[in-house]
Amino acid sequence: MNSIIFSSLFQKNETKKKPSLFIDLPKDLVPLGLIDFCLRLGFESNETDFDLFQPANQSYTMKFLQYTRTFISQDDSTFIIYYESESALSTLLSAIASEGMVDTKTDSPLTYYENLSHLWSAYGTGEKDEAHPQQHISVKMDIQEDLKTNALLKEVCYLALRLGLYATSISLPAITTEERHVTISFKNENESYMKLTAKNAIQISGMKDILPAVVHSIATAKHVSEGGLLGVWEFNEKQVNEAAILLEEQWSDKSEASYMIKALEEEIDKALEAEIYMTANKKNRDQFKLDLYEKFSNLTTIKVRSAFKTGLYWILEEVLPSVGRRFQKVKIVCKDGVSVDGLEQHNRWIMELYPVDEMIEMQYGIPKEHVQFELSSTQQHVYRVFVDDQLIAELNPLISEVDYVDGQKKAYPTTAGYRLFNKTEQVQENIIFSDRERFYKYYVKELLPRMVKKLKIDTNNINQGQLFPLFDRIEIDFTSSGIEEEIGVQQEANSSFEALYEDLYFNTLDYFHELGRQLVNQPYKAPGGVIPYIHIEQDLYKPIKSDIKVYQWNDKPMTEPVTKRILFNQEGQFETVEMSIGNELKVTEARTFLKHNMKNLVSLVERFKQYSEVKLNYGDISYKGTVIPFFEVTEPITSEYYSGLKKSDEKHTIVFEAGHHPNEVSSTPAILELMEDIVCHYPEILKKINIIIIPLSNPDGYEIMESLTKEHPKWKHHAARFNAVGLEFAHVKFKKSVFGEANVLPLILKKWAPDVIIDDHGIPAREWVQPFAGYACPPIFPVSYTIPSAKIYGIGRYANNETKEVQARNLELVAERVNKIFEGSTFAQENAYWRNRYYKYGTKWDPEKYPIEEMGNINFYRSMEVTPAYSSVSILRYPQWVALDIISEVADEIVYDEELISCVKAHKLFNQAIIEATLSTPVDKNNQSGRYIKKRPIEIR
Q1: Which one has a higher pLDDT value, 778 or 430?
Q2: Average predicted confidence (pLDDT) for the chain
Q3: Residue 2 predicted with pLDDT over 60
Q4: How far apart are the first and last CA of the chain?
Q5: Rounded CA gap, 893 and 492, in Å?
Q6: Can you tell me the distance from the alpha carbon of 884 to that of 874, in angstroms, rounded to the nearest whole number?
Q7: What is the rounded CA–CA span in Å between residue 890 and residue 765?
Q8: Which of 540, 662, 666, 835 lies in disulfide reach of 903, CB 3.0 to 4.6 Å?
Q9: Does residue 851 have a cis bond before it (omega within 30 degrees)?
Q10: 170-214: pLDDT as tens digits
Q11: If you ran DSSP here, which 8-state letter would residue 895 be given?
């Protein structure tokens, strides 16, 4: 008869498990066994309110009648408990609570309590080192004899109800003399407080008449992550670096045009022909040519070529116009770019021509397929151009040599200078060095070593440059003339300025990677921010200049605040907090406001407040002090308290992370549009799945992007890719660091134990050029992103263990769904276009560096050789329960207007396929010790 209470209150097939029970407890009764009953009641629930002891139209009522013996009966929707004595009633209630609870403990790790804010943590109750779908609660409630009142009992019951809510298994009874993992004791004292007396030991004290109000405040408190009060004072102590200037240097030099003229003035004064190479657009080069004719009468013929993307401009400006007739095809034979010590790849000289075939198609009407490339490892010239199989021209650009930042490899960029000819005989070659190259060499060879000498590097601290930075940031302000022009092909533009920006950013990070390897045998992955502010000067003759500021990291001990004691006022409300920060004891007001703000998302939060399906949570505080929110999108949760773990046991849960790299601009608007579509138009979806959304996981990077795009709105802005200190913060997830952005996904994993994790990303929408890194992506990237390989593609991974078969099958089925959903779409056409471009310029010459894993309508990389393998990847860390872990990539660095709208649509379509696959997968449960638990990892249908 006992078990009929729980089977009546909770239907097996209901996804919402909420106790609708009024406990009509007489005021003169204090049966402590009711605490066990409420612990079990919470355990059976996945959401609850604190209305057990107030009539509120509940479905069931529990009444108590004194009688000659103790038993329970049911009259329709009323459970009547007859009891001989309060002690017998207490024993019966404990027995009811314990029935069927033998061996319910799972192998899940026990949570622990080392901080009072752990009582109601961001993920329910207790602190967890790792995420797990199961959570065991083993608690002992110890109430001092003279405190046992009806009023206190009710509040302790609510405390037990809430503890049970967050548990997937429990140890009963809680009213016991046996040892439990956690002890909560209630003491009669003059002062009202809650205190952590030891690890996993909480004492709640106060006078008899005030203590019920104190316990009520504690039982109903919410963690700051849910918009509550508990722990807000700890969030306000989050370390935000106030950076002072460590080093500032100004540098200037003459422009390459001025150097060129000075060098020509020193040449022999005889009739000569000149080939000039300089970094300028055609208009400025033509003007420079006129200036040279006016200044140097001995120069009979002058050609002024581009020192940036030399081959491309040479073919379009000189070679093809010289043909003087209609032609059908063009073949460009390029020298193999690989050298013994160089970073350049086989296709180095082909890539410098990109997108010459489409520009020829635009200018001459020749189909781009009729423009072909060949590689030669034997020819002397870098370029040989054949038109209709006839050799038309050959060229060797001026090439410099630049040491790469690792001190081992070299790069061979084209550069500025000139060649002089007496008829066909070359009599002089003089490399001047481009403005970019001279500044870059100063920066790497002089500025960075001086900066390193000023840094406080502790070679004994393995966390430096990993969990906190070496410096706050470098701001590089540089001005020169150069090339900046859109070319009318897709999103493409040629920019010597952006090329320098990319080299400064990534090569600085690589510099510190190498420094770390030398000093501490591991790369410094979080050295500090690198922010290039590049300014365009139109006057070729103006000096080039820079102003570089290095801001220091304010090195403080990385200590987390620990709340040891909370004091309450006469009304039983939170009043004062005592917390330790390292060796310091700090006393602060409890009822305070969160001092950190949400940048860029305030209007968004207001917009979604109206939807009952959406709950706002605060994930953490970023390195720069910005609150990072996430949204829980579910069937409306009408209760005050709920368990994410249990909601995930009843329905499948998907997490979408967006804005990880903020310069990948479409993921945030895409996921927010999808969320609104679901809530407003397809809310029935939420009857079957839960969706968790991190709309902007890297607000510091977003702030950098906003600043940089003011001057150069269409650059890729990789300085906003990583976090504020140049760290790919995915690498420090599950580690204690100063980077709160790394903690949000782990928090969600601990709270919800999701089945499917989707990380929406992006790739460059146009060519990525780094002349000082081998005219390729920097070596830290295993594959090439020099041009887009697709409009949108997917990456999936799985663990190589006993779950491999299920996860690999899941991945294959989802990849097929994604491929199918793109069938017949414009995105499939764009994917085919970019796949052909990627193959023509890259894969054909170096398939390992330019991999393509094609499915027809989309590329989807499932090969473990090209997918991320670091330990913080969710499916690799938790293979026993994560079923899918997928990255989507859209060509959106950085796009606007119609192209941005298109990228948003592509992201949404990709994510729609994931949702459909999850919806089609039923919840299968296994019987574990008499309880039905969802089978994990789920098997996608």
Answers
A1: 430
A2: 94
A3: no
A4: 40
A5: 11
A6: 9
A7: 8
A8: 666
A9: no
A10: 999 999 999 999 999 999 999 999 999 999 999 999 999 999 999
A11: -
pLDDT number for residue 14 = 81
State residue 1's pLDDT score: 47
**DSSP states of 621-688:** E-TTSBEEEEEEE-S---SSEE-HHHHHHHSEEEEEE--SSTTSTTHHHHHHHHHHHHHHH-GGGGGT
pLDDT for residue 582 is more than 90? no
Beta bridge partners of 548: 249, 476
pLDDT computed for residue 102 by the predictor: 64
Q: What's the pLDDT at 337?
A: 96
Mean pLDDT score, 655-665 = 97
Let me know how long the chain is.
941
Task: Read off the tokens for 200.
Answer: 């996993």
What one-character DSSP code corresponds to residue 844? Answer: T
Q: How far is CA 333 from CA 336, 377, 775, in A?
A: 9, 10, 18
The structure tokens 């001057």 sit at 711
Angle at 444 between CA 471 and CA 786, to 5 degrees: 95
State pLDDT tens for residues 535-578. 999 999 999 999 999 999 887 777 889 999 999 999 999 999 99
Alpha carbon distance 33, 12 (integer Å):
26
Bridge partner list, 305: 277
| Three-class secondary structure of residue 522 per DSSP | coil
SS3 148: coil
The predicted model gives 398-415 an average pLDDT of 96
The secondary structure of the chain in percent helix, strand, coil, rounded to multiples of 5, reads: 30, 25, 40
d(CA 880, CA 798): 11
552 and 561 Cβ atoms separated by less than 8 Å: no
Distances (CA, A) of 179 to 118, 128, 141, 153, 510: 20, 21, 10, 21, 54
Q: At 598, is the pLDDT very low, low, confident or very high (cuts 50, 70, 90)?
A: confident
Separation between Cα atoms, residue 925 and residue 38, nearest integer Å: 25
Instruction: With H, G, I as helix, E, B as strand and everything else as coil, classify residue 338.
Output: coil
Which residues are registered as beta bridge partners of 184? 141, 202
- What is the Cα–Cα distance from 107 to 113, expressed in whole angstroms? 19
Name the token pair of 415: 């550069």
DSSP 774: T
Give Cα 862 to chain centroid, integer Å: 21
Q: For tokens 């630049």, name the residue.
A: 402
CA–CA distances in Å: residue 540 to residues 209, 266, 393, 486, 547: 84, 20, 29, 20, 20
Is pLDDT at 288 greater than 50 in this prediction? yes
The pair of structure tokens assigned to 551 is 């801001």
Give phi and psi for 409, each to the nearest 5.
-90, 170
- Torsion of the alpha carbons at 685, 691, 695 and 698, rounded to the nearest 10: -160
Residue 352, both tokens: 């410098």
- Report the alpha-carbon distance of residue 903 to residue 891 in Å, rounded: 7
With a pLDDT cut of 90, the percent of the chain lying above it is 87
β strands within 254-329, DSSP E: 272-278, 299-306
Q: How many other CB atoms sit within 10 Å of the CB of residue 547?
A: 15
d(CA 355, CA 22): 74
Separation CA 792–CA 860 (nearest Å): 9
Has residue 482 got a pLDDT over 80? yes
β-pair type (390-395, 383-387)? antiparallel
Rounded to the nearest 5°, which phi and psi values hold at 293?
A: -60, -40
* CA distances from residue 429 to 267, 271, 908 in whole angstroms, order as listed: 11, 16, 55
Tell me what pLDDT residue 137 has. 94
The answer for residues whose C-beta is within 8 angstroms of residue 288's C-beta and 6 or more apart is 257, 276, 278, 280, 304, 540
Strand 390-395 with 402-403, pairing: unpaired
pLDDT number for residue 887 = 95
Q: Nearest-CA neighbor of 248 among 553, 475, 550?
A: 550
Task: Encode pLDDT of 829-861 as tens digits.
Answer: 999 999 999 999 999 999 999 999 999 999 999
What is the spatial distance between Cα 454 and Cα 549, in angstroms, rounded to a whole number? 13
